[in-house]
Amino acid sequence: MKIKKQGFKFDRTVSAVVAAAMFAFGWGTAPTLAGDPFRTNDPHAIGSSTEEAFNAMFKEGNYPEAEAAVDTALTAEPNEPMLPALKASLLFLEDDSNNWEAFKPYATQTRERAEKLIETDPLRGHIYTAVGHFLEGAYTLKTEGTIRGAPEALAKLRQVLQNLEDAAEIAPEDPELNIIKGFMDLMLAVNLPFANPNESIERFNNYAAPDYLKHRGLAIAYRDLDQQDNAMSEVEKALDLTPNNPEVKYLKAQIFVEQGKHQDSLEFFKQAWEKKNQLPGEIRHQLKRECNKAARTANQPEPCQ
Q1: Residue 230: is its pLDDT beyond 80?
Q2: Which class for 216: exposed (0-12), middle (13-18), buried (19 or more C-beta within 10 A)?
């Protein structure tokens, strides 16, 4: 297996894991118990605002709509730990250089809400306690630096691993656990030197749900492993299921670039750019840079202005 020569990408991994925390709970669930797509037994309910936020963010790729729904749900559903994690994600993706002090209280709220949830729902409580510790560790590394922040971040990492282990002891094949843990494992395995991602890919493929997020996650992993044919196959499946999502079109454009097909990439860069106002600042700026660089390589006018 050929792995691209790249260092550990802190920002990419933070956003990937935050995203994993977001989509794991919310996909497709209605306010009634019958809506849980992960569990056929013992389904969980979420509020309509949480469902709206999730669908706007991950199905449609519309972050302003997602943020409005999250802000409503944070008050309406004060015990749900996924919501402050989602808010932290939105802040991170809007501007990862200036929003860390705003990010911090939502990271802490995620952990505190989750710790309370352990009493009544230990599985989900441990899952989101792990997410909260991860977010707090990310804050420490980003604000204090790798050297100064390492001891606290390592302590947080131990808490992450312990809580995921506690959740796995309760229900090792639980879909919600496996989409969060699976996405974390997948992104870390792809980005860490000397890691073998095969097991993580296999588990993610077997247990992750819903399908469009599974295919999207696999496409990212295969892209970073320089297995571009596999990446293209997976992103096509994701695009079939979410044809209006600009992030999925952006991902397909990136894979074309990795294949050296810069001309082919431009169609999908332009389609993503047409919906730039749906995207947060960090993604929008990166999309513009990559789009215009691909155009210059293909000797074409820069289309993303």
Answers
A1: yes
A2: buried
pTM: 0.82
To the question of domain 210-305 being in CATH 1.10.3720.10, the answer is no
Closest CA to 100 of 69, 72, 141: 141
pLDDT 10s digits, 204-219 = 888 877 788 889 989 9
Whether 243 and 207 have beta carbons less than 8 Å apart is answered as: no
227, pLDDT greater than 80: yes
Cβ neighbours, 10 Å, residue 86: 30
Range(s) of the chain covered by CATH 1.25.40.10: 210-305
24 closest CA partner among 48, 67, 57, 49: 57
Which tokens sit at 233? Answer: 């196959």
**pLDDT for the residue 97:** 65
Helix, strand, coil fractions of the chain, as percent rounded to 5: 75, 0, 25
Burial 112-134 (b: 16+ CB within 10 A, else e): ebbbebbeebbbbbbbbbbbbbb
